[in-house]
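>> received
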Amino acid sequence: MSDDHSFTAHGQRRRSESLRLGRENRATFDFLEESDRFRVTIQRLTSSATHDVQLNLAGYAVSANAEYRVTFSGRADAERTLSLGFSKANAPWSNAGLYRSLRLTTDWAEFSADFVATLDETDARIHFDIGNSPIAVELSSVSLWQATENGVVLLPRRESGAAWRGLDRSSPPPVGTPIAGFSSWVASVPNPESPRSLGYFRMFAVLGTWMEADIVAATVHNAMLQGCECVYVVDNGSTDGTQEAAVRAGAVIARSYASDRYDEDLRLRHMNDVVAEVSQTEGDSHIWWLFLDADEFPHGPWGMTLREYLATLDEKFRVVGTRFFNHYPGDGPSYEPDRHPIDFQPLCEELAFPMCPSRHRKHPLLRFDRDGPRIESAKGFHTAYCDEQLYEPSQPAFLHHFPFRDKDLTRRRLEALWTKDPTGTTRATEWHDTHMLARFRSLDAVYAQNWSRVENFVSLDPINEIVNAPASGVAPRPWAEMVEPEHQHVKRWYDTPMVGVWKYASTGKFHYGDDVTYRRGIAFLDGRGTIEDWGCGFAHARSFVTESAYVGVDGSSQWADKIRDLREYRSDADCIFMRHVLEHNVDWRPILANAVNSFRRRMVLIVFTPFSDSTRIIATSQTVTSVPVPDISFRKEDLTAYFSHLKQAEEMVETETQYGIEHLFYIEKPDDEPAIDSLQRELEAWSAADLTPRFWWRDDDAVTDTLQLRRLLRIAEELAIVPAIAVVPEQADESLAALLSEADCCVWQHGWGHHTQTAGEFGEGRAADTMALEASAGQRILDRLFGPHGWQRVFVPPFHLLSMRFKALVPDLGYLGVSAGVQLTPPIDHVVEVNAEVDVMNWPERRMLGDLAIRGRVAEQLADRRTENTDPTSPIGILTHHLVFVEEDWTRLTELFRFLQSRGAEFPKPAGLFPSPATVAPAAAREPAGVTVVITSCGRQDLLERTLDSFIKYNSCPVAAILVMEDGQPETNRRLAARYSDVDIQWLSTGERIGQIPAIDAAYRHVDTEFIFHCEDDWEFTAPGFIEKSLAILEANPAILQVWIRSLTDTNQHPVLSHCLFAGDVPYRVMQPGHHTEEWGTWNGFSFNPGLRRRSDYLAIAPLASFNRGEEKLAYETERDLSAFYLDRGLLAAILADNDGMGYVRHIGSGRRIEKPA
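>> returned
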């Protein structure tokens, strides 16, 4: 085993001792009960991080500010160091007051470490970090003591999760239950009631294959059904047509490689590399990746696809685990190609392992975040690697595993893995591929359904020291008995939800429930034109129609007038009656969208399931149907979103149905007439009144050069319409600037990063100064991309949400005005507001609205202006989103614009909708702050380039100067000087390598401002506002020496005091002084990490090199001694505590340390 949670244990462990292994490290952990002694033997180290081999002793309860002591005895096989720490034993991780380095020799020695606990914690741990050396370690008598009034007292430990050890074949433990022996690399928490979900993301799959031509097409089809836009195949040299079958199913062969043996490390390296390469190439901010083997078929909970489920999750979740079901063949055929295997193998057994606190065996869904740390899948997709704490939702997805298909084919494949070649070598390895070995040995027993003789692969695995699984014996049960009814529905790509559902041959004509809702619904429609009964079944509604023509529409009913698939059917009916249809169709969304876009006058929608807080399947049945039919409970807003723009009324009545109630929605189109006729009539009324209708076009979310955006610009040119393109500054790139600079369009600013805050990026609930900083940062990016005069300073708020506080600031920030959608906030006299009132998107379906709905909305806006509720000369804004348009949408949009132009409509240029810059009082120019930015570099030009790019992008404070000091030859930065020629940077150099501290002195001699923002060449900035907020702190508190801008959870293990202080409305905390470690000494907070400091504090000790006269100290030792000097003078370091604790920078130089020059 080599996952992050792996270890091998010998002997009987009485308590919660565990060994955590990071990356691909391997070690054994021996516990000798008779002497209370531990031994850790390190077999392989692939990383140098001390904490990547970590012995944990959890189960301690401590109180903040109480005094404690850790004692133990220790030795090593050769002289080495280890780090002793005391911290929380669960996420979110936090040091609890102790972390120091200790030296071990070959002789036993006693150790003691005193500390003051920094937090209250009921499950804390002593940990020994030993990953810095491969030398074995032995420890004994590890104890925690507390100082009390009556002396020092030994503290007991409690068991941590022992009750949940082992293989569970029924159901997972309570969410978050810790598992002894395994680290919580991921924290499992519920999805919030009001999640901050991603507004837009993409989804791909990466599929590993070897000799699986029989099933790979079905795997690809299922992945696409679950929402994956593309499936990228990484094939291990298959010769059976696997690659060809995958391509025919629509997959892309990303890599094909050959190997003599099955190598999981190599396979994962290829798959992770494909994910990284595609993610970088696509350019999207967020991409969910589904890692798959060819015999794995996942789906979401509550009858959802995976993509539908991911869309409901809070943005903090970057991992989704799955409940794992191993399937077995029963009677009849084991499998047929390109079918879901569950049709043939409903028998299954759930496997739950301690791969995470919730015992999800696999975690195949990982999210790439362009601005987040890289995340990689570990072996078998069981866990993942990431430099930040990961979170998964407590509600998992589901994964079905089908390793046994056609018996002969399965045997040949397994024989190819386990038959020895002439050298005695097998393709698979017994110690590593135990799951495949168990299948090979159990093949005959499986197909004979001799379940007691089926070997348990876990019993062959080192993990069995924890799991204690039996050597053989399985107990498969039908899938429908394994999970709750709401999760049982498994969608197929060949589903035909309305065709052949009813067992008409064996079911007499009937209708469900009483007649109440039939009577009320038909009464609302009768006499208003033809009534189409969608999902008519036995056409019982026909008996209540007295005046209108009746047309029954169904998938297969002999009583239907039309046989149609409602997912694809559209009509032009006067009225639609739909009773008990959506509740039984997992594809209810396109059905409802089609219905709303198909009726001209009235519609009645009737559902009999109760509403709930989320749309989900609550039951399934198959009494009178040919396939299992779900009962879906809806979140009401998910339904009404499809007809919220229409007149509607709702009624709930008690009826004789399963749940005792039915909900009726009475829906009407404007003026109870066809929308297309109302638009035509409204345009005729404008012509009769000698009025000229005026429109303008805005498109949102531009970030890069795409085919969709090029299509939009081509259509605009053909129609002679100048569109306004709303650009997202934080995500915008040079390719977009090049494209739009050559096009006849108007560029506006679309928020900052289009981030999904709960209240909207610029909505109520966010600090006005934070929003102002982000908006200003966006202006600077657009200035750099398009030039100060290459775009029009109009602000377009994401999601149309705009707080009144920010709206009032718009002129002061230099904007000509704002443009949202339908006006949601009251007008402000001095703020020009021109909104795009007609959004053509059907957002629940992420596609364009139907023609009737769009034309109806246009007619409403025209009527409003003609009747002078609104200025008739005010143009109507039509809003599009090019990124989600498909070919049909472009055609329909073009037809709409041509229709309006043919009726005399004008399309003025958007730039003319706002006053010219000369008529608007310019924003007060911001004087440069008394700050000089100093960036020190030492030959790492690739890192320096990333540092400069991100600083220029995110710095929102005008500064007096930017100095780059190269510790080396001046020509080193010649290329960068040319690249940044448009940025005022002074390029300095020491001439030759002199070391970090002397180079800082050399740079500071060029500074004459009051403040210095110091930064090294290996930091990437992530958010604006850090200099302004740091200035506020230094100006408010003279006792603060410098301000850190790292994340509160990324302080290089330096504790932070819990009390929060404020400089105005800027929150900050103080770095704990007197923090001591054996490895680093005593540290008081001063650091050369990015941060603002006073020049006067530097001059008080200048030069820094005076603290290293003999030049024998390492840079960090000088840093530490400076820290002590400043503390003696009462100066402390602070850290910004806003931005949700995320900080403003992240370190990018790990493993790139430059050694001190000789």
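>> Residues 475 and 1101 are 75 Å apart (CA to CA).
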